[in-house]
Design brief:
213 residues; single chain
């Protein structure tokens, strides 16, 4: 069965339930607030329990202030941040954490791409068991080349997932990013065995399907 969710704030849940949505995809940084104490998360959890729709996914995993590649990756800080985020995700019923985070994973000018790839794979190998312990799956989101210079295709994302080789690190297909970079739709079938989540939006203004035809 396919469930259809909307990337938006929990505050829109009632209207979206009437429209036929199955769930909300929230924001890790603003909903799970991993950098803030437990008392900051508690009212969000209370609001979720009273909401018309569940939250089963969350995007915007890492802030740009926590670089995961480059000359100064903050892997230890990221692992601590992730443990809090994943624990709160479990409490909220979130099972998918979207790892786009273009600011965190952008490769600095002049930094070797192979080294950045190795850094990210090493991080994901460490994140996989933490995600598994809290019952969540990290899905790697390829971003279009105007937004980030690293992991811009399903093929590149699939390579990272396969190098990581952990069942709680999977792949996401985002139709908007694929359209922006003119990527072949056949890649969705080619890498379908690695996919655990999908995003869909129109190419021009990132609007919901049907807004611009």
């Amino acid at each position: 069965m396919m469930n259809i969710g909307i990337c938006t704030s929990l505050s829109n849940a009632a209207a979206l339930k009437q429209a036929g949505a199955d769930y909300i995809e929230e924001n890790v940084q603003t909903f799970l607030v991993p950098l803030e104490p437990e008392e900051a998360f508690a009212p969000r959890l209370d609001a979720l329990r009273a909401a018309a729709l569940p939250v089963t996914a969350a995007n915007c995993f890492l802030p740009g202030s926590l670089p995961c590649v480059g000359p100064g990756p903050r892997q230890g800080d990221i692992l601590r941040y992730a443990d809090t985020a994943f624990r709160r995700a479990c409490a909220a019923g979130i099972t998918r954490i979207v790892f786009g985070s273009g600011g965190s994973r952008k490769i600095p000018d002049g930094f070797p791409r192979d080294m950045a790839r190795g850094q990210l794979v090493a991080l994901l190998k460490a994140l996989g068991p933490i995600a598994a312990a809290h019952g969540v799956i990290i899905v790697i989101e390829p971003l279009n080349s105007a937004e980030c210079n690293f992991i811009n295709s399903l093929a590149e994302g699939a390579d990272i997932v396969e190098r990581c080789d952990h069942p709680h690190v999977r792949l996401l297909a985002d139709i908007y990013h694929m359209l922006r970079d003119n990527q072949p739709p056949d890649d969705i079938a080619r890498y379908g065995h690695l996919l655990a989540h999908t995003h869909i939006a129109e190419k021009a203004q990132r609007t919901p399907p049907g807004v611009a035809g």
